[in-house]
Every structure is written in structure tokens, then in C-alpha cells.
Amino acid sequence: MRVLVTGARGMLGRAVVAAAPAGAIVVGVDRDEAELSNAAAVAELFAREGSVGAVIHCAGYTAVDAAESDEAGAWRDNVDAMREVAAACARTNAAFLGVSTDYVFDGLADRPYRENDTKSPASVYGRSKLAGERAARTVHPKGTRIVRTAWLYGPHGGHFPQTILRLARERTELKVVADQRGSPTSTLELAPVLWELLDAPPDVYHAAGDGDATWFDVAQATLELAGVADVGVMRCTTAEFPRPAPRPPYAVLDCAKLEATIGSRLRPWRVALADYLENHE
Ligand SMILES: NC(=O)c1ccc[n+]([C@@H]2O[C@H](COP(=O)([O-])OP(=O)(O)OC[C@H]3O[C@@H](n4cnc5c(N)ncnc54)[C@H](OP(=O)(O)O)[C@@H]3O)[C@@H](O)[C@H]2O)c1
Asked: Which of the listed residues 16, 30, 84, 102 should we mutate to test ligand 1's pocket, taking the one with most ligand atoms within 8 A of CB?
């Protein structure tokens, strides 16, 4: 089966291309190949590629803070592109899997978020991702899978554990936010799950590293697992590091539906982080 992977030069897209199962003919697509918010460009892409069986849509506007002052850009990449690619899949009877985020929730819950919990995004990024989910499900109701994930890191992108390791080479003490809790997720763990979910019923799924942590926990674990002993990590609050976009304080995703659907969940976040650090940093 021919499968298009969008956002193929991004952090997740590259891991998804690399995790393609035997038998899949993978075509990686990024903005150079097609501006996916443009209906004509998407139609041309599908015509050029011939029989597309499925799309794993990893393209998106991921600069959470920049989105606050670039609503048009966030909407173009997270809503228009998602809708146009899903619509092309509907026209050609192809499966569509769109990647979304924990930021669709406000983060005020006191238990992990289930797929159908109330959405109340607090940022432009979160609102655009939610609108993208809804647009895809509207234009391709029988073929859309939405997979929400969180706190991604992996071999192909700039991310938090990498930043911590860099700062640890420059400083003797780091201050890290300890009042945001989420589900750190390795792209190496998520990518094969996305391939599996192509065969799952069209629905919304949560797929994130098992367990939860604060950024402080992830920083400490990163340094410990990487064998960095001479750098102190201090707790601080979100208020001490004001950012343009509000972050959900509690963004833990309940992945029970994923487990019921594919028979497994992602490994505990610390195990996956250790694996990543050992093999890719
Ligand atoms: N990173 C995280 O922590 C995180 C957490 C939860 C969910 N997610 C979601 O996971 C997905 C992948 O994230 P990521 O971190 O791998 O993203 P990324 O590294 O920023 O890569 C996204 C790629 O998509 C491309 N793209 C964006 N809009 C496009 C358009 N209109 N047409 C064609 N290509 C376009 C980008 O091209 P340009 O470089 O030209 O913009 C970029 O190469 C996104 O949907 C994101 O919302 C990410």
C-alpha cells in the first residue's frame, strides 16, 4: 500500500517514515513538495502519487508561542492543511490519520484526560489543532483517525531533553518548571503505533508515554540517565518563566482506549527516555 507521510522532514514525520512496516511504499511529503493548505496543490499531489491507500498527517504548525501572534499561520497549517488532506483522502477512499495534541484540553483536570473529555484549549495552537481535528472528521467521517500525543522528543528534532543536555554543558545549575505535568513521548515509540492505528476503527485515540512527569522530573531523569552528575536542577514555577502561550498545567493523556484497540500502550516514559538517550544522544 502507498502511504503518504506529511511533515516528513519534521521530528515525528521522520520517525514515522523510518518506522514504515514491510510492504508499505512510503512517500514523504513536506512543504517543498506541496503546500498542503492549498486544495489544488493537494489534488495535484494525490494525482501525481497515484493510488494512495493512506496518509499519516504529521504536518502542522508547532511553534506554540509564535502561534499567539500568527493566528493565520497556525490556522493555515493546523486547520486548512488537515482539512484539505483529509478531504483528498475522502475523495480517493484513503485512510487518514491526523496527529493532534494534549493542548486541546485546558489542563485543569485532576485525572488523565480521556478522548471525549471537554475540550477547552487556552492557546491559539490548541484552538487550531482542535479545529483541525474537527475539520478532518467532518470532511472524512468514515476514514479519519485522530491521535493526540504530547511532549514529543526524538532523534530528529530540537526538544526538551536535548535542550537540557546542552544547557548542562553551559551551566552548573538549571531552573526547571515543576508545576506543569504531562506525558513525555518518544517519537520512536509513537511512530510504530501510528502505523498500527491506520488499521483501527476511525476514532480519536490518545497515545503518549506511560505515566506522567513534570518538566523538572524529565530534566532530572535526563541528566541522571545521561550520567551528568555535576549540574544541579532547581524547581521553579511557570509564572517565573512567562511565555506568550499558556500551557495546560495538567496535560496527562489516558491511553486506555489505545491499549484496548491495539493490545498495548507506549512504555513508561522513563524507560523510553533511557532507551533514547542510550541510542541517540
Ligand atoms: N512536538 C510536540 O511536542 C508535539 C506534541 C503533541 C502533538 N504534536 C503534533 O505532532 C505533529 C508533528 O509535530 P512535530 O513536532 O514533528 O512537528 P515539526 O517538527 O514542526 O514538523 C512539522 C512539519 O510539517 C510541515 N508543515 C507544516 N505545515 C505545512 C503545510 N501547510 N504544508 C506542508 N508542510 C507543512 C513543516 O514544514 P515547515 O518547516 O516549512 O513549517 C514541518 O516540516 C504536529 O501535528 C504537532 O501538532 C507535537
From this structure: 30
Q: Please report, for the chain, the start and end positions of each structural domain, with discontinuous segments joined by +.
A: 2-154+183-210+253-266
Q: 489543532: which residue's cell?
A: 129
> With DSSP H G I counted as helix, E B as strand and the rest as coil, what are the percentages for the chain, rounded to 5?
40, 20, 40
Distance CA 224, CA 238 (A): 23
3-state secondary structure of 92: helix
pLDDT in tens, 15-41: 999 999 999 999 999 999 999 999 999
Give pTM, 2 decimals: 0.97
Q: How far is the CA of 60 from the centre of ligand 1 (A)?
A: 4
Largest CA distance in the chain: 58
CATH class of 2-154+183-210+253-266: alpha beta
Q: From the CB of 31, is ligand 1 less than 6 Å away? A: yes
Q: Are 187 and 139 in contact (CB under 8 A)?
A: no
